[in-house]
From TrEMBL:
GO terms for biological process: Gram-negative-bacterium-type cell outer membrane assembly; protein insertion into membrane. Pfam families: YfiO. It is a lipid-anchor. Keywords: Cell outer membrane, Lipoprotein, Membrane, Palmitate, Signal. InterPro entries: BamD, BamD-like, TPR-like_helical_dom_sf. PROSITE patterns: PROKAR_LIPOPROTEIN. It comes from Paracoccus aminovorans. This is Outer membrane protein assembly factor BamD. GO terms for cellular component: Bam protein complex. The lineage of its organism: Bacteria, Pseudomonadati, Pseudomonadota, Alphaproteobacteria, Rhodobacterales. It is found in: Cell outer membrane.
Amino acid sequence: MTGIRSGSVVAAVLSVGLLAGCGGGSSKAPESFESFTAEEIYKRGEYELENTRKPKDAVKYFTEVERLYPYSEWAKRALIMQAYSYHRARDYEEARGAAQRFIDTYPGDEDAAYAKYLLALSYYDQIDEIGRDQGLTFQALQSLREVIEQYPDTEYARSAILKFDLAFDHLAAKEMEIGRYYLKRGHYTAAINRFRVVVEEYQTTTHTPEALMRLVEAYLALGLNDQAQTAGAILGHNFQSSPFYEDAYAQLRGHGLKPEARGDSWLTRVYRQVIQGKWL
């Protein structure tokens, strides 16, 4: 299983004798588990997880390990495997519940980092299309940040950083989509407010060059030349090779203007930060 150490949570070899004792390899669970050891039940769950197309079928075995052998080492392993099985089945709410129970019960365990990562992943994997509600994206960001901050030296933190950047970019994309919608319909002030969010709050994302170009377009439409020129200057300073700069430059030239910081607006303050090396 990806993300769990060999020998820690998942056993390396399945017992053939166990499979026969548990029903000859059938996926049907026996009516009673009392005659089996914790290890036998756990490995049966592992077999179901890796050899069937129904990850949830494995959950009942891991649950039984917890019920029959509470507070044992196998119960601890079974709990995190419940979270993993639910996640494989795309039952993200149950996955979060099991992962959180592991964190609450075994906060100092070496697998707590994986449980925390799995919890964050259950939010991340639910992120919807750009045009839909972004509540899960915010929750994913918060959970991924916790992995990064609490377990900075783990492989899970490295993966969380990559996913954090993608989720962050997703939020910026949402603002851009709405901004373009307003801009296309001539609602320039509403569009500017959306593009401003990208420039000020999501400036490290891939959407910043376009947001600045759209600001040039919107401000020119409103006759606010100083702001348009300043947005163009920021774009030229940071993204001069971008096609969005070429577009913004052409728009300014079409109005007899050039990219330069002018006036005293929020964009002028951003420009000063750019020059001072405090932005991007």
